[in-house]
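Annual report, structural modelling task.

Input specification for the magnesium ion complex:
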Amino acid sequence: MSDPIVVMTDVTKRYRTGGVLGRARGSVLAVDGVALHIERGEALGLVGESGSGKSTLARMVNGLVAPTSGTVLVDGHDVSRLRGRGLRTLRRNVAMVFQDPLGSLNPRQTVRQTLENVFRAHGETASTGRLIGLLESVGLGEDYLHRYPHEASGGQLQRVAVARALALEPDLIIADEPTSALDVSVRAQILNLLADLQRDRGISFLHVSHDLAVIQLYSDRVAVMNRGAIVETGRSDEIFRSPRHPYTQALVAATPEAELADDDPPMRGDGAACDDRHHDSPNDHDAVVRPEAGTARDRKRTRGY
Ligand SMILES: Nc1ncnc2c1ncn2[C@@H]1O[C@H](COP(=O)(O)OP(=O)(O)OP(=O)(O)O)[C@@H](O)[C@H]1O
Ligand SMILES: [Mg+2]
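The model returned the following structure:
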């Protein structure tokens, strides 16, 4: 039975442009009449070429971008009408992981301060044990608490960013190109970590990527975006086996066969984030393996807004 955490109806975003230094005013239609939903516990992949509107659409889910028209419901609440406590609850329930881990972390704050600030922003404090537990859940040891961003690798920093996203036990994580700034050798580690979290904790995911192979492997369902519109949605295995829309067909055709999973891809055998926990070795986990299908989809937790 359908139990969506996100429902978007006829959502449009038009950015105003120009008007400074004598440049002519104009506008860009970044998102054009999108209807989309995310089921609870589901990993939805959003794929499309650069500039197709993926980030704009993703940011409308947690209120970072306001729609020009249409409605975005999260847990049944219209995001654009949330204020005060309601907005804070939304920010708890919907966490983001960004593309560039170094840019998304404050260079002057240790990992401990970064994590503590998340709790403080919501009027909470976290014990050292809780902070260590957060780091462990992303495969990092407690020594990382005292590190500054420049003292960690890109893969380790993205783990810290995931720990920060997990801190307030969100129902939904939006991961916008979470691995495209990382060395190819650590991409699969981060993707497997996110897949494990989805499976083990029943967290819903909106996974944004221009990389079709990644989206196919790590999403239950896929939405294909082109020029602001969703041109096709479907189960990830089906959409790549028999794409219907010409744009999806072109995307599939442009993806090397070897990168797309076959019908019976290997499954992960354990729930560990990665064996290579404290260093991002270039040789470990560089093969992209498909996570198990979600097993914790029955979690239904709705917080008060
Ligand atoms: N703040 C903004 N002001 C004006 N135009 C914007 C703004 N943000 C995005 N756009 C424009 O909206 C369109 C969609 O941008 P968006 O960043 O959502 O695409 P994307 O699919 O995430 O691209 P990428 O894969 O490169 O990240 C683009 O034409 C972009 O130039
Ligand atoms: Mg983007």
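Confidence is low (pLDDT under 50) at residues 263-302.
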